[in-house]
Amino acid sequence: MVLDNLYLIVAITEKSNAIGKNNDLLYFLKEDMNFFKEKTCGNSVICGKKTFDGFKIKPLPKRNNIVLTTSDFSFEGVRVFNNIEDLIEFVKENPDEKFFVCGGMSIYKQLIGYCSKMYITKYEEKEIIEADSHFPEIDEKLWKVTEKVEGKNENPKLTFYTYERI
Fold first, then answer.
1. What gap in Å lies between CA 34 and CA 129, rounded to an integer?
2. Which one of 53, 56, 79, 98 has the fewest beta carbons within 10 angstroms of its own beta carbon?
C-alpha cells in the first residue's frame, strides 16, 4: 500500500548507493543539508534510533520527530513507534501531514514500499566509497525521475533527483 503523504529523503553515492559508515553520514555538505532542511521543515521526519542518535541537534527543530524502534526509547518532543503497523496507521490518520523517511538503512528498507515519492541526492563517486550501509536498488519499473537538478558543489558533485511512483 502506497501512501500519498509518505516520502523518502536520502543522500547516496551514485554507483554503490552507499549512505553511511560507522553510524554516520559519508558527507556533511551544506548544499545537501540545506536541501534536506528545505524539504522537511514544517513536516514530520521518521527515522530509526541510531539515525536519531546521530543528529547534531535533537530533536530536529521545526519538524515533528518520529522514531521507529523496537528498543525502550523515549526523548522529549519525539513520538516513538515500536512497530511499522502503528506507524503506518498514524500516517494514514494524518493525510494532511507530510512524512519524510530519513534513515537509516533498515528503516529505508522497511518503509520504501509505502512511499509515494523519493528525494535522492546523489554524490559523484569516482571510485567506490567504503561504507557499511547502503540504500536499496531503485526499481525502475516502480519509480520514474520527475525532476533532476545539478548541484553547485564541485567536490563531490551533487545531483538532486525527485522520483515518483509509476
1. 23
2. 56
CA 24 – CA 44 distance, rounded (Å): 21
Residue ranges covered by each domain of the chain: 3-165
Lowest mean pLDDT among 2-6, 8-12, 123-127: 123-127
What separation, in Å, do the N-terminal and C-terminal C-alpha atoms of the chain show? 14
Letter for the amino acid at 21?
K
Q: In which element (H, E) is residue 11 found? A: strand 3-13
| Overall pTM > 0.85 | yes
- d(C-alpha 40, C-alpha 63), whole Å: 7
Contact 45, 66 (CB under 8 A): yes
Nearest in space to 47 (alpha carbons), one of 103, 2, 1: 103
Query: What is the second-level CATH architecture of the domain 3-165?
Result: 3-Layer(aba) Sandwich (3.40)
43: three-class secondary structure by DSSP: coil
Contacts of 67 by beta carbon, 8 Å cutoff, 6+ apart: 46, 47, 48, 49, 52, 73, 75, 78, 79, 80, 81
Q: Which residue in the block uniquely carries the three cell numbers 515519492?
A: 117
C-alpha cell at 43: 513536516
What single letter denotes the amino acid at residue 165? R
In 10 A of CB 53, how many CB atoms?
13
Average model confidence (pLDDT) across the chain: 96
